[in-house]
Write a structure and sequence with these properties.
This protein folds into three domains: 151 residues, no CATH class; 228 residues, q2cbj1_9rhob like domain (Jelly Rolls), CATH 2.60.120; 88 residues, Immunoglobulin-like, CATH 2.60.40.2890. Helices cover 17% and strands 27% of the residues. Strand 21 and strand 22 form a beta hairpin. The radius of gyration is 25 Å and the shape is globular. Its cofactor is L-ascorbate. Keywords: Dioxygenase, Iron, Metal-binding, Oxidoreductase.
């Protein structure tokens, strides 16, 4: 290792702690590089945060917004690796930090923000957070001082570092006490494979629940451009779907918790499962799982629903419930393409506008990373970069299913924020200029689209008020109303609601004018006091 350091002088810090500590830090980085160049195995499976090493997680690729903190020896000195990149690959030295004066997390955060250049959060944006190597939040400086390696994620939720293709994380406590192994399939976008996540019996049970609910042709929200062009939903996806929430069966709730254990993001951020069935020849064209606001320049409800881009689908956990011998692959159409405008803290260009980028044919399954269906396996991919920017390389599709086969799968989307988090319109939000809002200023009490809606519950059981989210094409819980109680909320015209009780769901209603009231009757029907019923 000492001899190999002659080959990587860029790893040697030129300022900071005493020379002895500088050399110790450099040797650690050199050991990693020497193992790779000499062909020796590099540790890929990390079992616990206490035994982790920064060298395990540094990558030749940059991951904007994900920074690795390395403790040097047993002292207070730290090395900060911006974007999780190896010094030689980054072309810069790690940043030295002295943690000896950090008496509180506020002081630590202030220094880290300055040293790493973390921008101030925008309105409605989640603050950045610190984590250990197992994705647990680091909330005090004493804990931070104990860790050999820690991570800053600017987006504010844990994101497993991809490191390199073939790298493996062992995530503790995913299936009860049992761990799960996340194996990196791709760096751009970040995609992991987790085998044996779902048992055969669980897969069969999930499909049975879906059959019991009934599967229907799926329809998503269309962009403003698609509406203008009269795009048909049938041109976008040919499959059947059902939405499965936790109350339908214990297996759905069990897998919901297992997904939260895997992602290290609370289950309150999870959407209901979107169960999908593809028959022979059926497919899903290329699409994103996150909302590109520039495609909705005048659809205010989409902007408010996504908190101006800060409440969206952080991750997709995609379930394979059946084997398919021919076709049915999940394909990532922009696999390996450059990250556009990486240094921009927000926004960014379309991939095809970058040097080396291309705009793929979304109807073909010829180029890109293809992952065939394998029963019980799930894919985890991130729809956002760790700095909070949507990842345009996360464009993906489902290839046509081969002859005489049926593919069952499921989408479990994990949000940046809890599903029930609410927001209001902000006229001067930075995203308005960044993403090209064209709908004009419509906030304040004179907003013609505002609609106050009241629900009175005359049923014998409590009910959840569910609001239909255009950006996710699913219902989200807003609040609860007790039996005999009532609740009021401010909404907007054309917003759709249902009331869900443990035993039944009501009909759907829409808010159509300034003030409306609905009563949930004993037969679980919403009756209008004012307005119109869907």
């Amino acid at each position: 290792c000492s001899s190999s350091c002659e080959r990587c002088p860029s790893a040697m810090p030129s300022s900071g702690p005493p020379a002895g500590r500088r050399r110790a830090a450099a040797l650690a980085a050199c050991a990693w590089l020497w193992a790779r160049t000499a062909g020796s195995p590099v540790p890929g499976v990390v079992d616990a945060a206490a035994t982790a090493s920064a060298a395990d997680y540094l990558s030749e690729e940059a991951f904007p917004g994900l920074h690795v903190i390395e403790r040097v020896g047993e002292g207070p000195e730290l090395l900060l690796h911006r974007a999780g990149q190896l010094p030689a690959a980054a072309g810069r030295e790690p940043i030295w930090a002295d943690a000896s004066h950090w008496g509180s997390m506020a002081e630590a955060r202030r220094d880290l923000e300055e040293l790493l250049g973390i921008p101030a959060p925008e309105p409605l944006q989640t603050e950045w957070a610190l984590f250990d190597a197992q994705g647990r939040r680091v909330l005090d400086v004493a804990r931070l001082g104990e860790l050999p390696v820690a991570f800053v994620v600017e987006l504010g939720q844990w994101m497993w570092p991809a490191v390199r293709v073939g790298f493996e994380h062992t995530a503790a406590g995913v299936k009860g006490e049992a761990p799960a192994v996340l194996r990196t399939l791709s760096l751009r976008p970040v995609v992991f494979e987790v085998r044996d996540f779902i048992t055969e019996a669980e897969a069969e049970e999930v499909m049975d629940v879906g059959r019991g609910q009934g599967l229907h042709s799926s329809e998503g929200v269309l962009t403003t451009e698609a509406i203008a062009q009269r795009t048909r939903h049938s041109e976008f996806r040919t499959s059947k779907q059902a939405w499965l929430d936790n109350g339908l069966a214990p297996v759905i709730k069990e897998l919901d918790g297992r997904v939260a254990n895997l992602t290290r993001v609370p289950a309150s951020h999870n959407e209901p499962v979107q169960l999908l069935r593809y028959e022979e020849g059926e497919y899903y064209h290329g699409h994103m799982d996150w909302t590109e606001l520039e495609f909705y320049p005048d659809q205010r409800e989409v902007w408010v629903d996504t908190h101006f881009g800060h409440k969206d689908r952080l991750a997709t956990v995609f379930w394979y419930l059946t084997d398919v011998a021919e076709g049915g692959e999940t394909i990532f159409l922009k696999h390996g393409q450059p990250i556009c405008d990486m240094e921009s803290p927000r926004g960014g260009k379309h991939t095809q506008e970058c040097e080396g980028g291309r705009d793929p044919d979304m109807t073909l399954c010829e180029k890109g990373l293809k992952v065939p269906p394998r029963r019980g396996t799930v894919l985890l991919w991130y729809n956002f970069h760790p700095n909070g920017r949507g990842d345009r390389n996360a464009l993906h599709a489902s290839c046509p299913v081969g002859s005489n086969f049926t593919k069952w799968s499921g989408n479990k989307w994990v949000g940046i924020k809890p599903r029930g988090a609410q927001a209001e319109w902000i006229d001067d939000h930075p995203a308005i200029q960044r993403h090209g809002w064209t709908g004009g200023s419509r906030s304040g009490p004179e907003d013609p689209d505002e609609c106050d809606i009241t629900f009175m519950n005359d049923a014998a059981e409590a009910a959840d008020v569910m609001w239909y989210s255009p950006s996710t094409s699913s219902f989200q819980k807003i609040r609860s109303v007790s039996a005999g109680g009532s609740t009021s909320l401010q909404s907007y015209r054309r917003h759709t609601f249902q009331l869900w009780t443990p035993s039944r769901r009501s009909n759907k209603v829409t808010c159509q004018r300034g003030s409306m009231e609905f009563v949930l009757t004993s037969d679980h029907r919403l009756r209008r006091q004012a307005g119109a019923e869907l």
